[in-house]
Design goal:
alpha/beta; Rossmann fold; 2 domains; 13 helices
Length: 403
């Protein structure tokens, strides 16, 4: 019901823009409104629309209103590429969106041929530095490794990694394999399952046999519900610590699971007490839904739009090269704290670990004092070695980015 209500909100907002706003500045929004990932992506789409609405209500950018052109990625990289082409055909040279790394890479191929720029709002594997993408989500050195280090110090040294079989979990697993031995830790088992997998019975049996102290969970989207239900009902594993890196706090609150030792790791949680966050929550809830849970990808997608708007005029009407030149080094005080781009056009981001309680807002147990500088290519290998490894994985999947 939560997902359906958000879709109704989307169609109302989009109807208003489509029929009443005659704007001079066209931007694309490219997220899944259908398919397995829609539950994760629709809230981010709404936050993007809310930021645009806020800009327009404030008079636009130098008197010009912003018109969002929305396409459905349908949880499929092929459809994301087609959607990007349609947005470019309609005159949108800046696109906000995509979710999985496979969808981002599909859109990047379009942008490489036709020009344009993408603001990408989700945590990911790094290992990329496209001139067409501004990376808003955290890289592994900002999320994966701090989460693992915290677990090592506070829980134990035996790790099991489970994830969906595509580039982000695959790369994350490789990073952990290289990192853990230097920390005196051990990966006692791992498994990557198809993105379409719904049955985790065998996977949970393997985890049980491995007896880990910590499960690093890299499963994406709605499929986590099935995994969590099995873990919750397993007497041995229901108390095992789980750190989920792709599950947002809004999703976890809609699922009837009561895992006893479950943590989420992001740069933003809505219960931050700072005044700037309280004001941010009030603005978004006013435009979307008074009861909506605001998650990390929503927060950074909103700020991505604001950073784009701040630089649009200086970038001479949003031309791709000039836009990135102006954004280089730009920072803002966001709800999560100070954020800003480095020369690779990744963001300095804060990081927070929060414990999950059934039907409640996750409670923060640890957070960084200052934002973490991004490291696109972890120093565990050279940049060239990482690029060569990516090519190997791509070929293993049959010249695509996942199973």
């Amino acid at each position: 019901m939560h997902h359906k209500r958000l879709l109704r909100v989307f169609f109302v907002l989009f109807f208003i823009y489509s029929f009443y706003i005659k704007a001079n500045i066209k931007v694309g929004i490219l997220h899944s409104r259908t398919g397995d990932l829609a539950q994760s992506e629709v809230p981010v789409l709404l936050a993007t629309l809310a930021a645009i609405d806020e800009i327009n209500q404030g008079g636009g950018i130098n008197g010009e209103l912003v018109e969002p052109l929305v396409e459905d990625g349908a949880s499929d990289p092929v459809q994301f590429a087609l959607g990007a082409n349609r947005l470019l055909d309609q005159g949108a040279t800046t696109i906000f969106g995509t979710w999985t790394s496979a969808s981002r890479k599909a859109v990047n191929e379009v942008l490489e041929k036709r020009g344009g720029i993408l603001f990408y709002p989700v945590q990911f594997e790094g290992l990329e530095d496209s001139p067409h993408i501004l990376y808003l989500g955290v890289a592994p050195n900002q999320q994966l490794l701090p989460a693992a280090s915290w677990a090592l110090k506070n829980i134990g040294k035996r790790f099991y990694v489970i994830g969906s079989d595509y580039i982000y979990p695959k790369a994350s697993l490789e990073i952990l394999r290289l990192y853990m031995p230097s920390q005196g830790a051990e990966i006692v088992g791992s498994e990557l399952v198809s993105l379409s997998e719904k049955n985790f019975t065998q996977a949970v049996a393997k985890i049980r046999l491995a007896k880990p102290d910590v499960i690093i969970n890299l499963i994406n989207g709605e499929r986590n519900r099935n995994l969590f239900t099995l873990l919750e009902n397993d007497d041995q594993l229901k108390k095992t610590a789980i750190i989920s890196l792709s599950v947002t706090e809004d999703l976890i609150q809609t699922w009837s699971v009561e895992l006893q030792n479950h943590f989420l790791c992001w740069s933003y949680f809505q219960n931050l007490k700072e005044e700037i966050n309280l004001e941010f929550l009030a603005r978004l809830r006013k435009r979307i839904d008074p009861k909506i849970v605001i998650n990390d990808p929503m927060e950074i997608a909103y700020n991505g739009v604001k950073m784009w708007a701040n630089t649009y005029e200086m970038a001479k009407n949003g031309a791709r090269v000039n836009l990135k030149k102006v954004l280089d080094g730009q920072g803002i005080h966001a709800a999560e704290g100070i954020i800003g781009f480095n020369t690779s056009f990744y963001l300095y981001r804060n990081i927070i670990l929060a414990k999950v309680f059934h039907k409640q807002t996750p409670q923060i147990v640890w957070r960084t004092i200052n934002p973490i500088p991004p490291e696109p290519y972890p120093s565990l290998k050279t940049k060239k070695e990482w690029q060569e490894q990516m090519i190997i994985w791509y070929k293993e999947w049959g010249n695509k980015w996942g199973s």
